[in-house]
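LysR family transcriptional regulator (Pseudomonas piscis), 307 aa
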Amino acid sequence: MQLPDMNLLVALDILLDEGSVVGAARRMNLSPAAMSRTLTRIREALGDPVLVRAGRGLVPTSKALELRAQVHELVEQAALVFRSADTIDLASLQRRFSVRANDFFVGVYGGRLIDILERQAPLCELRFVPVGDGDDEALREGRIDLRISNTRPLSPEVKVQNLFTTNFVGLVREDHPLLAEEITAERFAAYPHISMSRRGIARGPIDAALAELGLKRRVPMIAPGFHAAMFMLPDSDLILPVPKESQLSVRRLGLRLRSFVLPIPLPTLILNQSWHPRDDKDQAHKWFREVVRTCCHETWKQAQQGS
């Protein structure tokens, strides 16, 4: 079945409202001749003259009068569909945003994110999804809305936006013997370390940097999350490398921990958010992505000021 040209519906609505080919042509930015041809197509589609001459003007036929209200309502509904793509009522928006991120992001940024949602879109929910192994299809399958990570997704079609860059610092208890003297690479490597890895991997960039100096650290503990590992530090001589922004959590919680600049060069981390193209133009999703970006930027500035 061949669908009719929807532009004819709009033209019919304007023609019935104007009762004039010239007036309708003006509103549709067409020439009178083009509008007359459109009216001919409408007549053929409906099997009715639609507008007939009465004196110097045109009047609608009985069928046109019957259709007028229905046609106008359909045009209004269609316009509403397209207007809704440009605007969003946050106060009435009901949506759950599922975000895959590690505990560092949840701990540092989660509170500010939910505060913005509560104030701007109070009917929405924020759901953090645990980072999992071999789950690169989550965006494609629609199980999550955003993936926040320092690695780029494997799926080539996925959209990616950089959020901010960060560096690692060391974290220890406030009376740790490492702090008593200058922190050299040798002294840094001499104390036990916590390795952060959700896959249980003990070695990484820190070990590579130490190896170039002929040094090796001891890693007696491997933890899957930064914030849980922080609470191990007060009772041990362990060293925990953390992203710089984690210092905000230390200050907010009043933890008796100290941070220090690592005595070895490490690559800068770029944190990004990624999403599937199906959500690229969705207004609610665009708003949420902007909230995440703004939240990260403001928190990043706060971390720089406090360092």
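The first strand starts at residue 51 and ends at 54. The mean pLDDT is 87. ok done for today
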